[in-house]
Amino acid sequence: MTHLFDPISVGSLKLSNRIVIPPMCQYSATDGVATEWHRIHVGSLALSGAGLFIMEATAVAPEGRITPDCLGLWRDDQAEALAAVVSAVKAYSNIRLGIQLSHAGRKAGSHSPRTGKSGPLGTDDAWATIGPSAVPVSPRWPTPAPMTEEDMDRVVAQHVAAATRAVRAGFELIELHGAHGYLLSSFLSPLANRRSDAYGGGYDARARFPLRVFEAVRSAVPRDVAVGVRLNGTDWADGGITPEEACLFARDLEARGADYVHISAGGNVRGDIPLGPGYQIPPAELIRSHVSIPVIGVGLINDPHLANDLVGRGSVDLVGIGRGHLHHPHWAWDAAEALGQTIAVPYQYSRARLSTFEPPKSWSHLAR
Known about the structure:
The protein is about 30% helix and about 15% strand. The chain is of the alpha/beta class. The strands form three sheets. An eight-stranded parallel beta barrel has the order 3-4-5-8-9-10-11-12, surrounded by six helices. The chain has a two-stranded antiparallel ribbon with strand order 1-2. Strands 6-7 form a two-stranded parallel sheet. Helix 2 runs parallel beside helix 3, helix 3 (about 150-170) packs parallel to helix 5 and helix 5 (about 205-220) packs parallel to helix 6 (about 245-255).
């Protein structure tokens, strides 16, 4: 049976199918402002047939950017540029649009891939970083300043302001980036959080600040805007967050009004990651058994039959297809063909659908 194209609700947001295009950084903004690249990029994937598109990690503050080329939502002009992208997409596509809000924390200030360099920016270009503790990502990275209560208050307010701008720009879903070793993720992970105050130690203390950020954002945006969190199911390293703690965090988010969770892994330290199709599904499947809200699973899921099987057997509720959509923006069309399903496509492209293609009668001589 086919389940990948079943509709589903995420909060009050109704999706036409279970296919999600997850956040993928484009490193193409100018001072945090979306450019024509974003209009082209989002526009092409808006015609993919996926039910949900979540825009890339978008910084809530200039010092929260992963790189100088990352999107931002700390100013109104940044929201206006994104609103233009949203408006263009909604004029021609019924895909649901979300955005991921992020603070990179101790991993902020990295070289953009367009420079051909990797690692932290040089001292002339870098900005001061913050984190739960004075623990750098690695010896080559700068040591972040441990956050004070005032820092936490400021970051909470920055998330709320960015979320408010996102709603004004027309986004229907807001995702907080709590994975990959960025700020919220680093608070949750014992590998990055060495605090001895109320925000460090056991799980409840490490989760306190991330949950506070979530509660503030959930309270600040309308109930009909879906709000969720991308979180690590594991750090892929000894001493990191465990799948069991990830389950606790997901349950705490649900209790506070989260509409979904999006399960990824890694990024706090270099871990031994068992790459392969669906490699991040096991922690997502465990988390799904502990919550009643939808769970998005990811991890090199490029085969439509695998995606359908994961949804059909209840491992996850939705599947994130990232690299697969970059390679083939109409991945969902091929998935529908492979699984014997129908999917709405723009009338301008309707002749590209193999199962519905019927050549005009005037071409009949070509078939002889």
